[in-house]
């Protein structure tokens, strides 16, 4: 996914940039970078691989040597960022998060014009941040260039530019698929993906940029360069999974949404008598826990943490790029509380069911520890499509999705023409999908949140939400 953080201030803020960026570490573990601007020395930059070491440990030395009144930082799961660019618009640092699905097409067009040059990454791939900068540089001003880049990019693009005078130019994706939030203290402004990151540093919330909005920020003012558009398609999965629990987007807190989502899931339980048989409701840690707490509250079944994830030395299991490493890490992190598992009937709530590999290992682990009945509830609808707007499921092909694999095994390719029926728990195809999932993973029952249920839990206008990974509708 990736996260960004930026500051411009009347005082030295290198420590705030460091900690604000570090607070986005849950969004990626591939590359990270920082640029600090100083009125005397200009730009100071470092980029590091953080696959084996934390952001904090990799950038500790940089923090000791760098100082300045402005800067940007980025946690990325893709190419190195931020970059320092020299162009007819001046020298600036650029940080980009999102996904450019037509990057090859755009870079090919730019190269055909015999204008820009690109540094090639491994395999000849071009850094998407360079593509963004090249698009911006085709115009006579930053705001014109950003508008042009947004109009050409397929996917998503949140960006922050640090200018040579220490001011910032910030642009949110044209459909607002990711958040861009502004905070303020007495000396300047902060810009962040996660709202809590600047709040922990003493900045208070000012506003969220609207879709396609571009602003210029100096320590003492915000100037709007491009007004926001009304149409928004913010990612629903922000609240369901990868957003941090303490963050708020579009005035909806992540933890509160997850609690509501669990309550709605329990309200819609097809077999209310199930509650009488259960000993515990448990969340698949960690992101399934708040959904489970809501389910427990509404069902009046006791909540318990039947197993704990050991996280001090293991990163989030979805981040390693090799599937084998991901599976091994998932297994190593699961530490049981046997007294809460042995001989018990347990309903687990997970944030989602994607590939299913870790789910199978979780069931085996619980059965080995004496679980009797096991029921699984997914806090989101069946995932039928891979995201083409963000980098969240960039390594997942459609054929990796457990739902599509099962549909193909039931009916062949023809079954994929009836995805809407398979998503519907009341249809015959929907019931068949759930029965096969339960049998395959050795659950007593499997069920999913409905699309209407998750939209209700978020509480925004449905037309403002992107639900493509579940509905396939753009």
List keywords for this structure.
single chain, about 475 residues, alpha+beta, Glutamine Phosphoribosylpyrophosphate, subunit 1, domain 1, Rossmann fold, seven-stranded antiparallel β-sheet, six-stranded antiparallel β-sheet, 18 helices, about 30% helix, about 25% strand, iron-sulfur, metal ion binding, magnesium
Task: Describe the SSE topology.
Elements lengths: L2 E7 L4 H9 L8 E8 L3 E8 L5 H4 L1 H6 L4 E7 L6 E5 L2 E11 L2 H10 L15 H9 L5 H11 L2 E9 L4 E4 L9 E4 L3 E5 L2 H5 L4 E5 L5 E5 L2 E6 L7 E2 L1 H6 L5 E2 L2 E2 H14 L6 H4 L2 E4 L5 H11 L7 E3 L13 H11 E3 L9 E5 L6 H12 L5 E5 L23 H10 L7 H5 L4 H14 L3 E4 L2 H8 L6 E2 L1 H4 L3
Parallel strand pairs: 14-23, 17-20, 20-21, 21-22
Antiparallel strand pairs: 1-4, 1-10, 2-3, 2-4, 5-6, 6-7, 7-8, 8-12, 9-10, 9-11, 12-13, 15-16, 18-19
Helix pairs in contact: 4-5, 5-6, 9-11, 9-17
Cofactor: [4Fe-4S] cluster; Mg(2+)
Family: In the C-terminal section; belongs to the purine/pyrimidine phosphoribosyltransferase family.
Catalytic activity: 5-phospho-beta-D-ribosylamine + L-glutamate + diphosphate = 5-phospho-alpha-D-ribose 1-diphosphate + L-glutamine + H2O
Describe the fold and architecture:
It is built from 18 helices and 23 strands. The protein has 474 residues and is an alpha+beta fold. The strands form six sheets. The protein has a seven-stranded antiparallel beta sheet. The protein has a six-stranded antiparallel beta sheet with strand order 5-6-7-8-12-13. Strand 7 (155-163) and strand 8 form a beta hairpin. Helix 4 (103-112) crosses helix 5. The chain is globular and about 70 Å long.
């Amino acid at each position: 996914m990736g996260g960004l953080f930026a500051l411009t201030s009347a005082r030295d803020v290198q420590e705030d940039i460091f900690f604000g960026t570090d607070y986005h570490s849950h969004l990626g573990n591939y590359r990270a970078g920082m640029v600090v601007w100083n009125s005397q020395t200009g730009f100071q930059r470092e980029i590091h691989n953080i696959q084996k070491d934390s952001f904090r440990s990799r950038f500790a030395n940089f923090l000791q040597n760098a100082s300045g009144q402005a800067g940007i930082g980025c946690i990325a799961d893709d190419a190195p960022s931020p970059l320092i660019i020299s162009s007819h618009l001046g020298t600036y640092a650029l940080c980009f998060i999102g996904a450019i699905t037509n990057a090859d097409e755009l870079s090919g067009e730019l190269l055909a014009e015999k204008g820009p040059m690109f540094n090639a990454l491994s395999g000849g791939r071009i850094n998407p941040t360079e593509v963004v900068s090249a698009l911006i540089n085709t115009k006579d001003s930053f705001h014109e260039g950003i508008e042009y880049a947004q109009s050409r990019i397929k996917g998503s693009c949140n960006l922050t530019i640090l200018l040579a005078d220490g001011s910032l130019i910030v642009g949110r994706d044209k459909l607002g698929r990711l958040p861009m939030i502004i905070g303020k203290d007495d000396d300047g402004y902060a810009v962040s993906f996660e709202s809590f990151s600047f709040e922990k540093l003493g900045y208070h919330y000012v506003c969220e940029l609207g879709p396609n909005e571009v602003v210029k920020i100096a320590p003492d003012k915000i100037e709007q360069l491009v007004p926001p558009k009304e149409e928004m398609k913010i990612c629903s999965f922000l609240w369901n999974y990868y957003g941090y629990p303490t963050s708020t987007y579009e005035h909806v807190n992540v933890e509160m949404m997850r609690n509501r989502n669990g309550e709605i899931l329990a309200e819609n339980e097809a077999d209310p008598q199930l509650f009488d048989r259960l000993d515990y409701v448990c969340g698949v840690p960690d992101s399934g826990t708040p959904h489970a707490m809501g389910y427990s509250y509404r069902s009046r079944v006791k909540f318990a943490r039947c197993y704990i994830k050991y996280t001090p030395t293991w990163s989030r299991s979805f981040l390693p790029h090799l599937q084998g490493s991901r599976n091994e890490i998932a297994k190593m992190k699961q530490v049981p509380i046997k007294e809460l598992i042995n001989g018990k009937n347990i309903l687990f709530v997970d944030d989602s069911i994607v590939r299913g590999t870790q789910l199978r290992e979780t069931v085996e682990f619980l059965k080995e520890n004496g679980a009797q009945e096991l029921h699984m509830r997914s806090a989101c609808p069946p995932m039928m499509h891979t995201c083409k707007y963000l980098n969240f499921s960039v390594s997942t092909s459609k054929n990796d999705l457990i739902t599509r694999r099962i549909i193909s095994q039931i009916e062949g390719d023809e079954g994929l023409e009836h995805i809407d029926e398979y998503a519907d728990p009341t249809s015959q195809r929907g019931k068949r999908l759930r029965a096969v999932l339960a049998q395959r993973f050795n659950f007593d029952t499997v069920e999913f949140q409905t699309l209407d249920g998750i939209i209700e839990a978020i509480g925004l206008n449905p037309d403002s939400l992107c639900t493509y990974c579940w509905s396939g509708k753009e």
